[in-house]
Protein 1
Amino acid sequence: MTEKQLKLQIVFKYVFFALFLFFTIDSVSSNGWGFFSYLFALFATKDFVNGTRLAQAYYNIKKSKR
C-alpha cells in the first residue's frame, strides 16, 4: 500500500465516521434509540477506531523513515 493510498483510506474512514454520526443523531432525534440508531452508532465507532489506528500506523511509518 502506498502512502497516498493510506492517506486516502484514513480520510474515507473519517468521512464515513462523520456520515454515520450524522445518521445516528438524526435517527435518535426523530425516532429515539431504536435498532438503526444503535447500528449507525456502531458503524460510526468502528470507522473512527479504524481511522485512528490507520493514522497512528501512518505516523509511525513516517517517523521510522526519518
Protein 2
Amino acid sequence: RNPEFKAAADKMEGPLRQIFVEFLERSCTAEFSGFLLYKELGRRLKKTNPVVAEIFSLMSRDEARHAGFLNKGLSDFNLALDLGFLTKARKYTFFKPKFIFYATYLSEKIGYWRYITIFRHLKANPQYQVYPIFKYFDNWCQDENRHGDFFSALLKAQPQFLNDWKAKLWSRFFCLSVYVTMYLNDCQRTAFYEGIGLNTKEFDMHVIIETNRTTARIFPAVPDVENPEFKRKLDRMVEMNQKIIAVGESDDIPLV
C-alpha cells in the first residue's frame, strides 16, 4: 500500500463512492467467509488427511490476506468491518462435501474470471482506474485460479461425484445457481461497473461463458450458456426480480 490508495478514496464522490464502498464490503465478507470455510476444513481434516488439511490451511491464509487487504481499503473511506464479530456471530450450515466441492470450485473459478477481466479492462483503459486495488487483481486472481484447480483435483479423486446421472444434474444445478445469482446481483449494481467503464451485462456474460468453458473440463454436464436463449431468459429474470423488489419497497398490497 502507498499514499495513492487514500488519495484515490478522497477523490471519489457521490453514488460511485457509495457503490464502491459496498463493493469493498461485499468482497471483504466473501473472502473472509472463504477463510472461515477453509480454516474449518483444515482443522477437521488434520488427523484423517493431513496433506489435504495443510492445503486448506494455506488456502485459508490466502483468503484471510485478501479480506485484510479489502478491509484496509475500507479504512481509506474511514470505515472498517469487524471481522472478529463475523467469526462469532456467523451461523454455520452443514453441507455434504460434494456440494462444497461443486459450489466452491465454481466460486473460485468465477472469481478468477471476474478479477482478471476487470484487471485487463483497466489495464487497457487506465482512465477508469478509480482506485489502485485493481492493479493487484492480476496476482490476486491467480490465487482464485489455483484454489479452483485444487477443487478440480478433489473432484477427480472422487469419481462418484462426476460419473453418474445425479452428478450431471447437480453440476447443471450449481452452474445455473451461481450464474443466475451473479447476474441478478450485478444488474442491481450497474453503477459500480459503469463507474469503471464496463457494461454490466456484457461483463457478466463474458465471465459466465469463460467460467462455463473452464468448468466443462471437469463437470460432467454444464448448461448451454452460449445459446442466445440463455441470455434472454437471464434478462427476463432481471425484469421479474426488479418487479419483486419494487413490490417489497411499496406500501401497496399487490394483486396476485
Protein 3
Amino acid sequence: MKKLILASAIMLAMTACETSTSSSSSGKVDYGFSCKVTRTDNSVNVYETLMGMVYDETSTVKLGDDGYYYTEIVTKESYPTAYAADDACEDWREEASHWHDGSHRVVCEGKTVTVYDYSDDADLEEIEDDYNGICEVARRAVESGEFED
C-alpha cells in the first residue's frame, strides 16, 4: 500500500504550504481536520479533510473475469485553489507515467484530481488498517503543530 502512504504524504505536503488557519478560543490552531474510515462488505473508504482539502479514497474488492479477486481504488482529492490542484495533478500524472500497464489513470477537472488504480491485494482488513494509519499520521501532524508557520 505504498501508494496510500504516498497519497497521504502528498496531501500533507500540499497542506503544509497553505496558510489559511484560524485560532479557537483555546489558542490552538484549527486546521479543519477530520478523518473517518468506513467499511462495507466489499469496500473500505477513508474521508479526510484538512485545511480546505478533501482526500476521499475507496477501495472496492471485485471478482475479475479470470475468477480472481482484485481491488479497484478510486482516489479523489479536492483542493481549495486551482494552483494547488494543478500542482497535485502534475504529481499524480508523473506517478502514473511509471505504471506502463495502464492500470494507473489520472483525471484532472477544476480543483479535483481523481486517480483510478487497481491492485491484486484484496485484503479489506489490511486496507482498512492502512486507511486508519492515514488518519493517525494526519491526526498526529495536526496535534503536533506540524503546520505552524
Protein 4
Amino acid sequence: MDSLWLVLLCRSCERAFGRQSSSKDTTCPHCNHTDAKVLSRHHSAGEASKAVSVANTPPEIREQLSTWMNQQSNSTHSPEKSPIDGDHILSKSEDKEGYVTLESLRKVLVSSNIHIDAESFAEHACSEGQLMRAGVNRWKRP
C-alpha cells in the first residue's frame, strides 16, 4: 500500500510543510516546533509539494498560483518517453547497398513517431561511430 503524504501547518510560524503519513516526526523545518495541524492528505509527493507551495503563498495570489501550476502541469505532462533504439532506426533507414540518406532517415524517424531532426540524428550517429559520411546527406554504416 502506498503511503499518503500530509501537508501540515505549523501552529507557531504558520508555514506549511510536507511529511509522509508514516513519519512520526512533525517538527517544522522552518522553526523547529512540533505543534502542527494537518491541512490535507495526498497520494503523491508531487501533489503534496504543490499543496505546500499554495499554502505558503499569500492569500491574495493563491488562486492565481494554483491556476498557473495547473496550467504548467497540463502543458508539461506527457507520457514517459522510452529510449530511442538508434541501431534499429539506422538499419530501417538503410537502402540495399547499406547507405543511409537524410531523406530515408527522416522518413523512418517520422514513421516511428520520433521528433528529432534527421540531420542532428545523423551527426550524433557519426560522432558515435555508427555512421561514416559518404557524401552530401549520405552515410554508410561501418
